[in-house]
Design brief:
This protein has a 3-stranded antiparallel β-sheet, with no helix packed on it. Strands 3-4 form a two-stranded antiparallel ribbon. Strands 5-6 form a two-stranded antiparallel sheet. Helix content is 49%, strand content 11%. It is mostly helical. The protein has one domain.
Length: 170
């Protein structure tokens, strides 16, 4: 492929600044990769999360600052479908269950894991999907203020062809 006077090899996918970009613009593999990284950090601190020596607020800070930061790197460009949203919520709920622990029934004394609704009530911060949507909106606002000749701006408004000559060589 030739853009202006530069030649580029056409590939199925490549990694750019830690983000995997695919030929079909599929974000599914990138989300899997980010959640895998987030799980790695989750497992590195999982002994801290059930600990009674840390307050729940500290555990939530660990989750938000370390685990979410890694899992959501580059999320500003993600275009989520319901399946990815569900996968992200499962990831978040698993970490929150570890933080908040099981609940004990007052009448029977039995322990059970928290339901999603209970987790939502206990975790006062926006859920992971809302965080992603918020970051996307902030990024779009940032790009919309850029000069209209910038590639990011042209990509946002759907005018990539302006001032660019594309030529595919086979």
């Amino acid at each position: 492929m030739k853009i202006d006077s530069r030649s580029f090899e056409v590939v199925q996918d490549f990694k750019y600044l830690g983000t995997t970009l695919t030929y079909q613009n599929s974000i599914q593999e990138e989300i899997k990769s980010r959640l895998k990284s987030g799980n790695g950090f989750y497992h590195s601190v999982q002994n801290l999360l059930p600990s009674s020596s840390l307050s729940k607020n500290r555990k939530i800070k660990i989750y938000r600052i370390i685990i979410l930061f890694v899992a959501l790197y580059g999320c500003e460009i993600w275009s989520l479908i319901l399946r990815e949203e569900r996968r992200l919520r499962v990831f978040e709920n698993r970490a929150l269950r570890r933080i908040f622990g099981p609940r004990r029934d007052d009448v029977t004394g039995e322990w059970s894991k928290l339901h999603n609704e209970e987790l939502n009530d206990m975790y006062s911060a926006p859920n992971i999907v809302r965080v992603i949507k918020s970051r996307r909106m902030r990024w779009e606002e940032h790009v919309s203020c850029m000069d209209e000749r910038r590639g990011e701006y042209r990509g946002l408004v759907g005018n990539l062809m302006k001032e660019t000559t594309w030529e595919i060589q086979e």
